[in-house]
Here is the input.
Amino acid sequence: MLNVAIVGASGYTGLELIRILHCHPEVAVTCLTSEQSAGKRVSDVFPTLRGRCDLVLENLEPVRVAEKADVIFTALPHKAAMEVVPTFLKLGKTVIDLSADYRLSDPDVYGAWYEKHLNPANLKKAVYGLPEIRRAKIKGARLVANPGCYPTSIILGLAPLLKKGLIDPHSIIADSASGTSGAGRSAKVDGLYCEVNEGFKAYGVGGAHRHTPEIEQELSLLAGAGLKITFTPHLVPMDRGILSTIYATPAKEATTEKLVALYEEFYRGEPFVRVLPQGSLPSTAFVRGSNFCDIAPLVDGRTGRVIVVSAIDNLVKGASGQAVQNMNLACGFPETLGLDGLALFP
Ligand SMILES: NC(=O)C1=CN([C@@H]2O[C@H](COP(=O)(O)OP(=O)(O)OC[C@H]3O[C@@H](n4cnc5c(N)ncnc54)[C@H](OP(=O)(O)O)[C@@H]3O)[C@@H](O)[C@H]2O)C=CC1
Ligand SMILES: CC(=O)N[C@@H](CCC(=O)OP(=O)(O)O)C(=O)O
Here is the structure.
């Protein structure tokens, strides 16, 4: 049995980790932390857990946390994660970091989009945790940088096209819409019910969103050349889910039939990517609570443009489900353990 700690357990991804790990046969959750709810039972913060997980939330003291766990999930805001990850690694622990702190391999790029990186030495050890493109490196990794939710939906949506050189890599436009749990559980005016529920709005427009460099880093590696994208996130009045609609100019003539066949071949055997049959489109409703990414590639018959639509649950494939998938790979468990039956009938 592997002892696991969740640091930042009183947040949305923390709750989702508890939900998933509770049903994982090889894991015991032994330590949960919170900043404001330390001393309370986690089931008092999230009554849904009552009778299933009643651990008391602790203050984040890295050495004490490490004494209780072999694997530590850091579900903290960026910056707070890199303040504690070095201690966990020094004490020999495996870390799956859900924050953005170890995703960008270049500390200067991190500095330009976030702030000065506090721990550049460990950036070299971090593996970007998107199993469908980095599986071999994640196996046995000690520090996994779990991808952002928007990047997961966009990179999985574009990987087959870029790997096969089928689109102009400089022509990519991605519009993504997210539910509000993407912004975390802490109080913010923008997340208030009345603010969100009054409409559907874009934000971070014009290359201003911090996921832009993360998406560009990974897509450039797939394309074998540096590229820039136009990425526009949107906030939707729903609690969870991300739908990305991605557009690109084909480099070679394409048909929907050929693209579907290419995607089916590329993702054959992938347990959590479902390529939809021609004529079907993804919906956040069909992936809700699950670790699936549903993808539909097609060609706009009028303009010739390639369009890919992808859907994930931001809290599962976009965060905690993918983090457990990464833990399974890093620790030598079957990749789908604890994730297979998630929310098929929510
Ligand atoms: N929400 C999402 O869809 C996704 C989130 N992520 C990333 O995962 C991480 C966690 O996200 P999420 O769960 O949504 O965030 P939340 O805001 O819901 O939760 C954050 C957690 O971290 C704790 N915390 C905050 N600041 C500190 C601090 N300085 N020291 C110690 N603990 C602290 C909070 O404690 P308290 O409750 O006491 O404030 C809470 O437990 C973030 O980096 C986020 O960007 C990644 C992919 C998707
Ligand atoms: C709706 C919403 O606000 N979403 C968040 C992204 C959430 C996420 O996955 O971001 P990190 O993991 O990189 O922190 C945002 O736009 O900042």
